[in-house]
Amino acid sequence: MHPVAGVIATALEAQAPPDLAVARAVPVHFPGGFVRTPDVLVARAARESYAPGDVLLAVEVEPTADDRASSPAVYGRHGVPHVWRVTAEPPTIRVFALRDGVHQQVAASAHVIAHAPFRLTVDVTSR
């Protein structure tokens, strides 16, 4: 796991309400046999793998150029409401929210304060 993913996972674990689960490197199985394994995800319950409908937030660190374009679209088509795309240098979290079936970038910063999927603060410079 990338060190930045560890920082994000630790922050989410510390702040998540007890009815949500934070998982590290657990696969999400999409219809048609397609699988993505985000570095970190937030879901409604702890499991060994997930369907997209269970995932509230998917976090991918250091995605490839192809992933940067395709991943939010894949998650969006299947109803995952929040996606974070994270780069380590410079440390930046790009926050995407599902709007009308499409993920739209709503913020980009090293320090994120969000209200969904729960109230949280993450600073990727604090590693």
How would you describe this protein?
The protein contains two helices and ten strands, in the order αβββββαβββββ. The chain is α+β, with helices and mostly antiparallel strands and 127 residues long. It has one domain (3-123): tt1808, chain A, CATH 3.90.1570. The chain is globular. The two termini are 14 Å apart. The strands form three sheets. It has a six-stranded mixed beta sheet. Strands 2-3 form a two-stranded antiparallel ribbon.
Annotation, overall tally of beta strands: 10
Helical content (DSSP H or I, runs of 4+): 10-25%
The CATH architecture name reads Alpha-Beta Complex
**How far from one another are the termini?**
14 Å
CATH class: Alpha Beta
Which stretches are poorly predicted, pLDDT < 50 over at least 5 residues?
none
From the 3D structure, determine the CATH topology. Answer: tt1808, chain A
> C-alpha Rg, in Å?
13 Å
SSE arrangement, N to C = HEEEEEHEEEEE
Short description:
By secondary structure, the protein is of the alpha+beta class. It has helices at 3-15, 65-77, and strands at residues 21-24, 28-29, 35-36, 40-43, 55-61, 82-87, 92-99, 102-109, 111-114, 120-123.
